[in-house]
Design a protein that fits this description.
The chain is an alpha/beta fold and 211 residues long. The protein is built from 8 helices and 7 strands; from the N terminus they run H-H-H-E-H-E-H-E-E-H-E-H-H-E-E.
């Protein structure tokens, strides 16, 4: 199954940012980047699902160091090129649902547009909890159909199919704030802030902490 996931995302590595812009719109991309750039004092950061590094660059300067990870070798290679100006970023292949990082290794864990497209979201959150220090921060941003108008949801789905074809069977499509909060509670996180951002296309932006 892991190889299937790698193949699915790796084939889009060359155009991933442009594809997302087409599917979801440039406005929501910018809004998420602005939210991330407003974060402060992130310390040692682990990012899961970095893709080509579009969002990594938004918080890299607020971090002591960033380990940018992805399941796809092709995505990581593109990220290395796009983020080569940042001396505090290293790259590593990793599956967010099960990693080899030591417990308590990071101050902040970040997942952008990942939680709704992985097979076991709770496993990923439990892994984040394990590798975060006590008091560590978790930042999640995720496209969502919650509060989107029906016509905009349909349009986004059509654009997804046009660019990326049939999704993997476990894609949830989107999570509501309540659904994500329940998952975080099960993983022993305390939600500090949860909001929906965007106009036509919506995204959840959530900040939680390991106590």
């Amino acid at each position: 199954m892991a190889g299937h996931k790698e193949d699915y995302w790796g084939r889009f590595a060359g155009t991933f940012d442009e594809d997302q812009r087409y599917i979801a719109g440039e406005a929501i991309q910018r809004a998420l980047a602005e939210e991330l750039s407003g974060e402060q004092n992130l310390g040692d950061v682990i990012e899961f699902g970095c893709g080509r590094g579009y969002y990594t660059q938004a918080f890299a300067n607020k971090s002591k160091c960033v380990v940018a990870t992805d399941l796809s070798d092709e995505m990581l290679e593109m990220a290395r090129i796009q983020l080569k100006r940042f001396e505090n970023i290293t790259f590593q292949k990793a599956n967010c649902e099960s990693t080899t990082f030591p417990a308590g290794a990071f101050d902040t864990a970040i997942m952008i547009n990942l939680i709704h497209v992985i097979e076991n979201p709770l496993n990923a959150l439990l892994e984040c909890h394990r590798i975060l220090k006590n008091g560590g921060k978790l930042l999640i941003a995720s496209y969502t159909g919650y509060s989107m108008k029906w016509l905009h949801r349909v349009g986004m789905a059509i654009r997804f199919l046009k660019k990326w074809g049939k999704p993997l069977p476990y894609f949830s499509g989107s999570l509501s704030p309540d659904q994500l909060a329940v998952l975080l509670e099960k993983a022993a996180f305390v939600v500090e802030e949860s909001k929906t951002i965007g106009d036509k296309t919506k995204a959840l932006y959530l900040r939680a902490r390991k106590e």
